[in-house]
Amino acid sequence: GENVEQHPSTLSVQEGDSAVIKCTYSDSASNYFPWYKQELGKGPQLIIDIRSNVGEKKDQRIAVTLNKTAKHFSLHITETQPEDSAVYFCAASFMEYGNKLVFGAGTILRVKS
Amino acid sequence: DAGITQSPRYKITETGRQVTLMCHQTWSHSYMFWYRQDLGHGLRLIYYSAAADITDKGEVPDGYVVSRSKTENFPLTLESATRSQTSVYFCASSEAGTGVQHFGDGTRLSIL
């Protein structure tokens, strides 16, 4: 089955700097890669996703890149702000298997002001 | 209000007891999921359901039972709770074909 590894487990950046979180997946059939943000005491919330026919996707300060050959994808947050502090999860899925997601272990991002 | 709600938010129980966690969604999403979240493991899928009366095991199903008699409800039961089932449990729902999962705010379960 699919296995998703996520690095780093914790990341501390200065406000205004960029943050990058990386994930690798094992199943070459996976074709959907979402990123979720989880704030304290809340459930995860989708922030951006990418499908395998696209190499990069941006939404304001957030971008995701996908390298299908290497089976890895990354989340990039530019101009970080204190409210970006949270736990971030990557996930992978083969949509034809139904809507199941396999999640990485998570990255705790701390933005220092 | 539309959304997905979990109850209770917090629960303390003893080993050997049966406990049921509730999940309700108002979107009529066909898919529903139960995850447990433990430090260092991220979110692990316990059970999922593609529609009413259709359920299937996820990665860590042992010790759990689910049912889905109505599209909007997906209860998770621990038939005889063990300390290893102390965790935060999240329910999610998803519209078929989208991949996007919408999560509740979780149930923090402690088993003494």
Which percent range describes the beta-strand content of chain A? over 45%
Overall structural class of chain A, as computed from helix and strand content, comes to mainly beta
User: What summary fits the major beta sheet of chain B?
Assistant: 7 strands, mixed
Shape call of chain B: globular
Order of helices and strands of chain A: EEEEEEEEEEE
Number of strands of chain B: 11
Structure class of chain B: mainly beta
* Largest inter-chain contact set: A-B, 24 and 27 residues
Number of helices of chain A: 0
> C-alpha Rg of chain A, in Å?
14 Å
Strand content of chain B: over 45%
Q: Describe the global form of chain A.
A: globular
DSSP helix fraction of chain A: under 10%
The pLDDT mean of chain B sits at 94
As an assembly, this protein is heterodimer
What is Rg of chain B?
13 Å
Number of strands of chain A: 11
| Major β-sheet profile of chain A | 6 strands, mixed
Work out the helicity level of chain B.
under 10%
Tally the helices of chain B. 0
Write structural notes for this entry.
The complex is a heterodimer of chains A (113) and B (112). Helix content of chain A is 0%, strand content 54%. Chain A is an all-beta fold and 113 residues long. The model of chain A has no long low-confidence stretch (mean pLDDT 94). By secondary structure, chain B is an all-beta fold. Chain B has no helices and 11 strands. Chain B is globular, with a radius of gyration of 13 Å. The mean pLDDT of chain B is 94. At the A-B interface, strand 4, strand 5 and strand 10 of A face strand 4, strand 5, strand 9 and strand 10 of B.
